């Protein structure tokens, strides 16, 4: 959001500076497109009459004193040349001298773009009839107070004025977007019952429309997810009730069953048990879909959790080799130890199920860049590359998993395609990430990454 604020602010500044520059430029060339230059010639009649009257009454000394008074008028100068062409003033600009002795009679010279905007000359006489030449010079207004300084100070003033106004307007435009971004972040983190700020909802522009539509969308999604989770809980509850009755009926059937019926009853018991476990997994996923309270989270030693999972795996799979190594025995994360153990257990069970006979599962724990990394690798056939991402979705299994025999199922392997999906959701719930990759030496490698916390030692 800082980017859009800077863009809007820069747009205000650039627009204002360009507008100020154009205004100053137009002020410079204003007289070229107006008749002000021509209108300035009219007052010279008064200067001519005054100069001639002063010359006739006081002679050259009084006329010189009158010429010196023009120093108090920075936009107008006057010069007088005697009948010999000698100026009464010592300092006469070259342009004025050239114009005074030019052979263009007594026509005025107008140059709107020059420092000297207008030059007007006229003859005046003293009491003895001697002819003098009066030259009146009108300076361009911008030349009086220094054109570069005029433009420079104008741009500085514009920058200060429009800089403040642009900042205020930019903040006014981007503040509701910042507030809306916070709401979207809360929504993305799982808090669907997010409240959009009132100052956004009350706006009558496009930002207000966006805020109101987002609030409506969040409310609809919240209702849909609540309904979905409630439906899953209701369905699971309704399914478990008949399953419990089936289990009771199955035990009663065993009392009156003959030996030949035992195999079929075992199959019914196995499928019933699998269905009960499936319902349990679905309920676990439903709980993980919602953002759960984290106030009860505590630092968890990863190695302790993994060692317990490994001990259970070795007990259940006496023929399986599980090798555990740890670079940092004190690697800790903040979370729920029970959920983390469930995630690791699902991954280890999956690895033991798919590793080839005579091989094992390698588990390595390390700390890298403030993160605890758990790498679990089997030595099985691996997974096609195009299926790696799909394996984290519920009920997705590779072809090798689909072809497992009934004997594997009877050993306690469920095979619903939910193990990795549940593990991924648990990791995501703990602000971590879970990735799958085929190891270069063969087999599937699962990398579980969680943010570390300070050691409690």
Automatic annotation (TrEMBL):
It is found in: Cell membrane. One of its GO terms (molecular function) is kinase activity. The chain crosses the membrane at residues 6-30, 155-173. It is an enzyme of class 2 (transferase). It catalyses: ATP + protein L-histidine = ADP + protein N-phospho-L-histidine. PROSITE patterns: HAMP (PS50885), HIS_KIN (PS50109). Residues 234-454 form the Histidine kinase domain. SUPFAM superfamilies: ATPase domain of HSP90 chaperone/DNA topoisomerase II/histidine kinase, HAMP domain-like, Homodimeric domain of signal transducing histidine kinase. Keywords: ATP-binding, Cell membrane, Kinase, Membrane, Nucleotide-binding, Phosphoprotein, Transferase, Transmembrane, Transmembrane helix. Signal peptide: none annotated. It is a multi-pass membrane protein. SMART domains: HAMP (SM00304), HATPase_c (SM00387), HisKA (SM00388). InterPro entries: 2C_sensor_his_kinase, HAMP_dom, HATPase_C_sf, HATPase_dom, His_kinase_dom, HisK_dim/P_dom, HisK_dim/P_sf, Sig_transdc_His_kin-like_C. The keyword Glycoprotein does not apply. It comes from the Bacteria. Residues 171-226 form the HAMP domain. Its main location: membrane. The keyword Transmembrane applies. Its EC number is 2.7.13.3. PANTHER family: SENSOR PROTEIN CREC, SENSOR PROTEIN RSTB. This is histidine kinase. It comes from Thalassolituus marinus.
């Amino acid at each position: 959001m800082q980017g859009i604020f800077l863009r809007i602010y820069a747009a205000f500044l650039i627009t204002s500076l360009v507008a100020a520059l154009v205004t100053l430029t137009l002020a410079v060339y204003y007289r070229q497109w107006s008749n002000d230059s021509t209108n300035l010639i009219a007052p010279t009649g008064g200067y001519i009459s005054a100069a001639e009257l002063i010359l006739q009454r006081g002679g050259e000394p009084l006329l010189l004193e009158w010429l010196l008074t023009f120093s108090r008028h920075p936009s107008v100068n006057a010069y007088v040349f005697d009948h010999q062409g000698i100026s009464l003033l010592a300092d006469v600009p070259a342009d004025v001298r050239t114009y005074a002795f030019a052979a263009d009679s007594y026509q005025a010279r107008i140059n709107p773009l020059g420092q000297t905007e207008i030059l007007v000359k006229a003859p005046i006489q003293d009491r003895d009839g001697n002819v003098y030449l009066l030259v009146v010079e009108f300076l361009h207004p911008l030349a009086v107070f220094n054109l570069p300084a005029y433009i420079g100070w104008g741009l500085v003033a514009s920058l200060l004025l429009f800089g403040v106004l642009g900042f205020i307007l930019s903040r006014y435009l981007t503040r509701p977007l910042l507030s809306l971004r916070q709401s979207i972040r809360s929504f993305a983190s799982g808090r669907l019952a997010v409240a959009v700020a009132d100052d956004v909802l009350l706006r009558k522009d496009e930002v207000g429309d966006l805020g109101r539509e987002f609030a409506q969308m969040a409310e609809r999604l919240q209702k849909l997810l609540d309904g979905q989770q409630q439906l899953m809980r209701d369905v699971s509850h309704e399914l478990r009730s008949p399953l419990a009755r089936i289990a009771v009926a199955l035990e009663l059937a065993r009392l009156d069953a003959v030996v030949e019926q035992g195999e079929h009853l075992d199959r019914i018991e196995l499928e019933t048990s699998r269905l009960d476990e499936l319902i349990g997994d679905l309920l676990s996923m439903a709980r993980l879909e919602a953002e759960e309270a984290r106030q009860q989270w505590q630092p968890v030693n990863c190695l302790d959790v993994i060692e317990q999972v490994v001990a259970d795996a070795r007990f259940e799979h006496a023929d399986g080799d599980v090798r555990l190594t740890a670079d940092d025995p004190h690697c800790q994360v903040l979370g729920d130890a029970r959920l983390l153990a469930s995630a690791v257990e699902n991954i280890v069970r999956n690895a033991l199920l798919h590793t080839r006979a005579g091989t094992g599962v390698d588990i390595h724990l390390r700390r890298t860049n403030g993160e605890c990394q758990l790498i679990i690798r089997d030595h099985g056939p691996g997974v096609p590359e195009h299926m790696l991402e799909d394996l984290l979705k519920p009920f997705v299994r590779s072809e090798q998993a689909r072809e497992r025999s009934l004997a594997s199922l009877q050993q306690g392997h469920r095979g619903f395609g939910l193990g990795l999906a549940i593990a991924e959701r648990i990791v995501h719930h703990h602000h971590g990430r879970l990735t799958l990759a085929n190891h270069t030496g063969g087999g599937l490698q699962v990398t579980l990454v969680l943010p570390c916390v300070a050691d409690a030692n």
